[in-house]
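Lecture 7 notes: from sequence to structure.
We start with the chain below.
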Amino acid sequence: MNIRQGVGVVTATLVIIAFMTLLNYGSPTPMVNWPVETYMGLTFTIGWFSGVPNWLAYVLAAVVLILIVVGFYKIGSWIYVLIADKL
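Predicted structure tokens for the same chain:
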């Protein structure tokens, strides 16, 4: 793994942790359960606001979380390349 990929992984990890913190801050849920609560909360939100079937809400929530991780991996890698080229 090169430095660009490492920066992408760190960026994606920090963003997903920030997203979980945003959705679970103030709830009495232990931090160990935050990933599941984030997924379930996102599923509930998609199902409630769009009226899609339950199975589709679960699939869409998983797709949204995957897109967040992949998108911010790419953004972190891209920003590293921009900064490294200027040095």
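Points to note: Helices lie at 3-24, 34-50, 54-86. The mean pLDDT is 95.
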